[in-house]
């Protein structure tokens, strides 16, 4: 009897689904509960934000290279939109701070994480594990909607009087709450939506990976990408809530005049802040912030690892080297990433014992990261590599991430930080990880999975132009910053250290040489070069959706993982019949096999 | 249709045993609350002991709720590992954060503090 | 398309989807409240005793509210057990009590809140401090602070219409001080009778007769609102966040109890699952309060 009830229910659901046959545009693309549509929604929105964040950076770079000169092309538009802070098209110091804070916020929370984690995760993970959808499709839709709302709030805050948040993406109190404009309030509200969104998304991911693996898909048969997503989702579930708590407290500070993060005897603008109770702790914010923000660094990079692993295995036509080592490394990175956060705070007056603790854990966490990178390098050994566009990006990822990772090691030591803290060295270090690192992984992923999502290939020639241009200009942008940083150039000076070097002549210790300052101009030119080389990608992306070369089969890259065994593009519900898994994820070039790849669902 | 409601009689017997357990836990929670409040009115001279005892009682009450009302006493391994990880991260946040906040740099190492 | 294991448990994990989902959500909730509890410890250790005004809350009411919440947790689990035994009517009764308890808890909490919004502390320029109530035109004054005394010009909209009339500056007002100030307890050594006496007198019952207070003598005036001190900041943040959880839990339980009950007819197993999942959330809310009550009211 229970079975009957169950069946009727299933039939009802089925019929309901069929009623949606000629779905309207709204229910199919906007209020969709299909994980693939949600993934595409995330992807397209986040790509827009990526471009927007990049444009903010270009305007800042212009101001750094040519302080006080009107921004070319968009200067007048800027003045029309923002008024006084962009008078005559020149970026005022406050506006520079707005752009700086929002560049960081948008890139981290609205562009990279939604792209690398949400977009690829939503699209690929259920397909890879052989599931018909995610565990909670409606929660999934809500997750995207929260993300979208958060983005709208962040964008709207540019247009309010006084502009968006100016306190940096880290929003340190008391600075962030004592700036008299409302930008910070919008920032916090936007963050609350974004945090909710990633919470809903990642709970869904974990539940899906645990519950909806196809029969035979044991833990050690999961593609490495799924493992990376699994750990990333855990980081988001457990590290974001303390920041949400901190955001609530900062909102209270901003709106209700509490003093969670405000010490006693605070002076604001030269006046004692008598109306406040004081008694709070600015360091408390920093701790809670970095408790999220350090795991967030791994949220930025782990999906990148996952994508690169898939692309490398596929294009070397051999199994990934050290699959188990990779899995255990990524799990240890996840665990350790929660106990290294205070290495961002060595200069806050931490004691020697605790800073020794954090130095030690920071050095330890580099070990699994190096294991991951090494495994991927060794995977190349002896492979007959196909140099297609995704593989080019994957191959470039390895040394670029290597540079970013190794230059980060000195920053884990408190004595070195005395010199390097808050300099361009830090900027260069983490941009090497995120820009030619994660963003290259994202590009690799886009070129790799594009045929599955659209049924068409992206143009390879344009892809190669995009790749070489991006690789060269990325390095021209970030390599000189190491030199600037080691020379002591501070990262937050809105005029690119022009005033600073005027005040400190050549013979002063800590003075910046003209050569260092001149690098600003070179970097800015390289940044515009990078913009130009994104145009082939943008064109290629949209043009290929309608005009790209059609794929001839479901599996154009001849891959083993399950997403390539589904129809192209996969319909709602994914697989024609539920797949059964018989083997590990990377059975390439198995001796004696008929083809050089054996799909996971091929019966032995 | 009717027999599909819930479970059969065998299970029902277990449920009745469970109900007695729930009522017992309820009683224990009430007693724990009264003890904590009573301790406040009695005024133990040491603040430290008051805090330790109060938090100890609260922890016992919390574990009663978690074990019996939330059925953690016989839950699946998956949930245990999830909660273990959460407990680890919660503990590391609390301990490391408080340690970092109240471990000031050793100013006494500076010459000025050594009277030189 | 049917999502697998939405109702039935997956054999190897022994869980259905929603149960795993709610436990993951609760794990994140542990970290959310964990962040706030950690902040509580930091703020408390940072504060000097006379700036940590605990002991102003009404303990009997707080204790009663604790009982209300514990009772609601028991009725949830009894309701679930009744459904397991196929007794829908009994389940309805128990869950109705749960919802009533939730509403009762919130009402009592809001009375406690309003009590604080009308209770004041004055920091005088000569350094002494007093707590008490302010009366204006025979009524209790709400939400006053130092800025209220200075008065405010009228607020006009773009067309020049008065949105909020001007409030005149206040030179003098009527104040009924409490018998003792909360910081007295910190000055006494613990355990002396004076400290116990103070706890009782912190309430309106122990008020002195009303006096006139001159604005010119005042350095700072604040009701016991979040801005009063870090103690009240964390008190209101924690209890309001917890109250929000109670509210959401009550709405969900009420939905399943009322309009969502149709599911019992069509898919009883899924219905019982929903009771279990919402129950897990509810017990968690109870569990948070078990810690909140001692740290905010008693310690």
What does this structure look like?
The complex is a heterotrimer of chains A (604), B (116) and C (299). With 604 residues, chain A is mostly helical. Chain A contains 19 helices and two strands. Chain A has a two-stranded antiparallel ribbon with strand order 1-2. Chain B has 116 residues and is an all-alpha fold. The longest helix of chain B is centred in the first third of the chain and has 34 residues, at 9-42. Chain C folds into two domains: 17-117 and 231-298, Cytochrome c oxidase, subunit III, four-helix bundle (Four Helix Bundle (Hemerythrin (Met), subunit A)), CATH 1.20.120; 120-224, no CATH class. Chain C has helices spanning 17-46, 59-84, 88-117, 146-150, 182-187, 193-201, 230-257, 263-266, 268-298; strands at residues 119-124, 129-136, 139-140, 155-156, 162-164, 172-177, 211-214, 218-223. In chain C, helix 2 runs antiparallel to helix 3 and helix 3 runs antiparallel to helix 7. Chain C starts with 16 loop residues before the first helix and ends with a helix. Classes of the chains: A mainly alpha (604), B mainly alpha (116), C alpha+beta (299). At the A-C interface, helix 1, helix 8, helix 9 and helix 10 of A face helix 1, strand 8 and helix 7 of C.
CATH architecture descriptor of the largest domain in chain C? Up-down Bundle
3D shape of chain A: globular
Distance between the termini of chain A: 38 Å
Provide the domain count of chain C: 2
Share of helix among residues of chain A? 55-70%
Mean pLDDT of chain A: 92
Q: Give the structural class of chain A.
A: mainly alpha
Most extensive protein-chain contact, per-chain counts: B-C, 56 and 54 residues
Residue windows where pLDDT falls under 50 for at least 5 positions of chain C:
189-205
Shape field of chain C? elongated
Uncertain segments of chain A? 1-20
Which oligomeric state applies?
heterotrimer
